Predict the structure.
Amino acid sequence: MDLEITAEDSTFFCEDGDENGLLNGSSSDEAESTSEPRSGNDRPNMLSEFASEFYSGGSDYSSLMGNKKKNGLFVQKNLLQMWGIEKSGAADSSESRVSMENRKRKKSENEKEQWAVFGLNQKEFEKGKKPAIVQSRSCPFYKKIPGTPFTVDAFRYGAIEGCSAYFLSHFHYDHYGGLSKRWCHGPIYCTSITARLLNICLSVNKRYICALELDKEYEIEGVKVMLIEANHCPGAALIHLRLRDGRTYLHTGDFRASKSMQSHPILLSYHVNVLYLDTTYCNPKYRFPSKEEVIDFVVRTTRKYLQKQPKTLIVVGAYSIGKERVYLAISQSLQILPIYTDASRRRILESFGWSELSGRFSNSRHSSPLHVLPLSFLGLENLNKYLETLNQRFNAVLAFRPTGWTFSEATGSKLDMIKPTSRGNVTIFGVPYSEHSSFNELRDFVKFLRPEKIIPTVNASSSGSRDKMQALFNNWLKS
DNA sequence: GCGATCAGTT
DNA sequence: CACAACTGATCGC
């Protein structure tokens, strides 16, 4: 099961590209099971140990520090523990034990349901006989590009039959999932920033990484390829493809559409036949302000709080890459320096080679008035304890959680209506800083491109939402 | 003991 | 409530 297939041989891709039943309404869910058996480990791992152990901590930026040693790596249990304000281990609060047991019970209830639902008896289930639909995880159709040997963001399916070029649109877990130092199924095409992250965070063998410059045309397996800035996270790209037969495809990966995208020469020069679209917020209820407006709000708010209380610690939450502009803007417009973040995130941010960012960082929590912390840490309780660890240096915390969903039509784009949650000296603002297109931005982009066919890549698993989106597309494209 | 996958969290 | 994107727990080799 180790076939070397050329572009022309790749018969598994439906030539007419209509197997997905999205436009013509034909019912073929079978397209999805165009069976590639998971041929996971059919090849000896011939990778050399080029990456040092130091880098093998995955994308978890916190894994390089901390208090517990695991396989030669230091892995932290908990930020508060590591700063010495909370005991580790033996904390035998009966509360946590109870919730553990609750979870266990919940779990086993789920299992009971499972074997019943899938028509297995309990013995079969416990023996590990898995229902068929769980067993076969094959690459969904919308990750394959018909008429090419290409896939996009499809790394968790082992070797994909007929695929000789694997594109990665950007470095977020739900897109790169499946990549590791053991990847050996074929070349990975991505931007140079993403390429560096594959090396630094996942130790993917360099011989599989093919970095492409933005806005430059390449020819790969007979297809003209161009990556375009996606306005998502650093390194994120739209993938523009022109096949030999004249068809043009655009895969947006994850993106935030904007007016300026509409003046990209290649989008003006070639009519797009098929659009693979990031439909994350493809519902009229998602209206949020531009990034600039949100950043302006964040800066204004920060200024206000600092005037009231100069000894305020500013905190911005972020999980992996993305949202950099939020804390950069605070730092730049209010001359707040340096920025503290942990060593691992710092390494990642500095790898962008972004001169505005690099050079602003410090290792010292105590000497920095602006901290970038994991989003999951941004709660009232945690921040309050955090403030205590910085004894006396600060006497209040102002935190921002930049997330996409925050607002629906009611609150709309009136940023000043945002009410923070606060307790004592800790204030937390959720701000609608989105790195995906709003509904209107999506609509405008689609109306600009006027593709013949749109394949949603998000929210596409239920037929209900697929139909809903298709109705919207039809409406946008009529007349 | 490890990586892969699932389920739960914000 | 939403939701993408994580994190931690459990599974299976």
